């Protein structure tokens, strides 16, 4: 008769697994506007590509004759899948079974998912919902003992960051180790209103006499996308899956490969006439840096990351004649583009991602320096700013800078990669120095102005004298800036550079591990 009875038993057990936590729990998941984990997997993976591993693992109930009565499946699902025909490890928490907590899971499944992603050098997409495998108090009674916390397998999660892309999507109320799993990724997304992220939930916070706060107060998307714990927020799970696919499209599958070229039909010779007048002549007037970004890079290719935090620095991924690159630029609308502590933290993440995955980096610069003032000092701006400049110096990918307007002070020196000869262009609107003339005249000429009987006239005379030597052409005479270019030529020049940069890239491990 062969092994048909055993296969029938396998199919019966698989049916229990596919039922998740049961109809009532599935209905509750849908009531709160959330997909089940299996629906999520079907939505993000290429159709029919998911191959589940460990499907029938769970807690079984048997009758007195040893026959299976019921199988409560493990609340963690993982397997191999394809996203845009790229092989990945795809894993997710099943909130319908004990809210994704450890007393309903099998830890080895989660460790196996992380280990397979690391050892097979595959991207890992985590669909995080609930405790993410963290413990609940009930697990103490079930185990008959308490346990000292131990992060078994966490080294694998961290090591994977230096090998292959990692994306975490917060799709529900995420707490504890689940929150740490979201944050320990190259890119993270949270769904507004149906998802929250917190170190500990409302009950624990209240018990610790830290106030009566709901989970929205503790972990709303607005909180954690403003402080940088999560990169981006979307309005639906479908959008989260699309963001994950977009992010992966710019990166290679692992460090032993290079990112793919995706041609869009946008000519590398395209010149945008609006660029000749986009920067105002008046130095205190602002303009939209994102308009320059959208113009210079392949149309529609700019993928901004972290738009809600560190907002004086714009960061993201883009393409030049199809080649993937990392991009950062100052936003004159936010602190005039001054580097803040949070902006520097965000920049470090981008530069480390670029180093890990061999992405050339482009800086469109309008930097007045580090943000100054009491609040800036209290936030440790110089510490994070120095770390950002160190990350730029450690960058293992080619670097190019276009000085759009300001380049002042220590932060303004990020127009070149320390210790390297980088490609650098300047627009005729370029204005640079140790500090802006407007802010430094009264300090440098303080005594002269104090001794003058007509200080206002003297101040204006000094300003006029200094402005005569302010032209970027004066700097070019001394080869302090290599090229002053017509702004309309920016895209053609950067596309040419991107082709050269690609030729110089060599896959393999970075000289340092990725810093989560």
Summed up:
37% of the residues lie in helices and 19% in strands. With 516 residues, it is α/β, with parallel strands linked by helices.
Task: Give a written overview of the molecule.
The chain is α/β, with parallel strands linked by helices and about 525 residues long. The chain folds into two domains: about 5-250, 2-enoyl-CoA Hydratase, Chain A, domain 1, CATH 3.90.226.10; about 275-505, 2-enoyl-CoA Hydratase, Chain A, domain 1. About 35% of the residues lie in helices and about 20% in strands. It is built from 21 helices and 19 strands. The strands form four sheets. Strands 12, 13, 14, 15, 16, 17, 18 and 19 form an eight-stranded mixed sheet that branches. Strands 1-4-5-6-7-9-11 form a seven-stranded mixed sheet, with helices on both faces. β16, α16 (about 410) and β17 form a beta-alpha-beta unit. α4 runs parallel beside α6 and α17 crosses α19. The model has no long low-confidence stretch (mean pLDDT about 90).
Largest sheet: 8 strands, mixed
Number of domains: 2
Beta-strand fraction estimate: 15-25%
Mean pLDDT: 91
Judged by helices, strands and strand pairing, the structural class is: alpha/beta
CATH superfamily of the largest domain: 2-enoyl-CoA Hydratase, Chain A, domain 1
Q: What shape does the CA trace take?
A: elongated
Specify the number of helices: 21
- Overall radius of gyration: 27 Å
Report the CATH architecture of the largest domain. Alpha-Beta Complex
Please state the oligomeric state of the protein chains shown: single chain
Number of strands: 19
Residue windows where pLDDT falls under 50 for at least 5 positions: none
CATH level 3 topology of the largest domain: 2-enoyl-CoA Hydratase, Chain A, domain 1
N/C terminus separation: 56 Å
Q: CATH top level of the largest domain?
A: Alpha Beta
Please estimate the helix content.
25-40%
């Amino acid at each position: 008769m062969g092994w048909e009875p055993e296969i029938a038993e396998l199919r019966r057990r698989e049916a229990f697994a596919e039922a998740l936590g049961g109809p009532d729990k599935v209905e509750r998941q849908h009531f709160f506007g959330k997909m089940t984990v299996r629906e999520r997997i079907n939505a993000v993976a290429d159709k029919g590509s998911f191959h589940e591993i460990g499907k029938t693992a769970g807690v079984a109930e048997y009758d007195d004759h040893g026959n299976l009565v019921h199988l409560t499946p493990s609340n963690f699902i993982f397997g191999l899948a394809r996203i845009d025909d790229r092989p990945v490890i795809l894993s997710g928490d099943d909130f319908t079974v004990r809210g994704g907590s450890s007393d309903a899971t099998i830890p080895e499944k989660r460790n196996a998912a992380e280990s397979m992603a690391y050892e097979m050098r595959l991207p890992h997409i985590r669909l995080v919902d609930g405790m993410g495998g963290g413990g609940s108090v009930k697990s103490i009674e079930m185990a008959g003992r308490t346990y000292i916390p131990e992060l078994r397998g966490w080294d694998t999660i961290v090591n994977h960051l230096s090998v292959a892309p990692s994306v975490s999507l917060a799709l529900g109320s995420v707490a504890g180790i689940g929150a740490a799993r979201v944050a320990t990724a190259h890119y993270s997304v949270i769904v507004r209103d149906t998802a929250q992220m917190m170190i500990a939930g409302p009950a624990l916070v209240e018990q610790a006499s830290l106030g009566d706060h709901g989970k929205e107060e503790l972990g709303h998307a607005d909180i954690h996308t403003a402080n940088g714990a999560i990169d981006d927020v979307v309005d639906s799970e479908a959008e989260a899956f699309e963001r994950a696919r977009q992010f992966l499209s710019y990166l290679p599958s692992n460090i032993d490969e290079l990112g793919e070229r995706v041609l869009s039909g946008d000519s590398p010779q395209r010149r945008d006439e609006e660029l000749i007048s986009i920067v105002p002549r008046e130095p205190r007037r602002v303009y939209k840096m994102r308009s320059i970004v959208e113009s210079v890079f392949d149309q529609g290719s700019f993928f901004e990351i972290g738009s809600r935090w560190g907002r004086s620095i714009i960061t993201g991924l883009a393409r030049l004649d199809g080649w993937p690159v990392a991009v950062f630029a100052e936003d004159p609308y936010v602190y005039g583009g001054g580097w803040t502590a949070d902006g520097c933290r965000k920049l470090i993440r981008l530069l480390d991602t670029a180093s890990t995955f061999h992405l050339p980096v482009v800086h469109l610069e309008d930097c007045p320096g580090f943000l100054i003032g009491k609040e800036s000092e209290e936030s440790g701006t110089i510490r994070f700013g120095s770390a950002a400049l160190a990350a730029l110096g450690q960058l293992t990918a080619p670097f190019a800078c276009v000085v759009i307007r300001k380049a002042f002070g220590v932060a303004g020196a990020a127009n070149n990669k320390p210790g390297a000869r980088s490609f650098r262009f300047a627009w005729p609107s370029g204005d640079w120095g140790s500090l802006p003339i407007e802010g430094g005249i009264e300090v440098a000429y303080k005594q002269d102005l104090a001794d003058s009987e007509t200080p206002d006239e003297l101040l204006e005379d000094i300003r006029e004298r200094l402005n005569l030597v302010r032209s970027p052409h004066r700097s070019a005479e001394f080869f302090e800036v290599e090229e002053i270019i017509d702004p309309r030529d920016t895209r053609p020049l950067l596309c040419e550079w991107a082709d050269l940069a690609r030729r110089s890239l060599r896959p393999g491990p970075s000289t340092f591990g990725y810093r989560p």
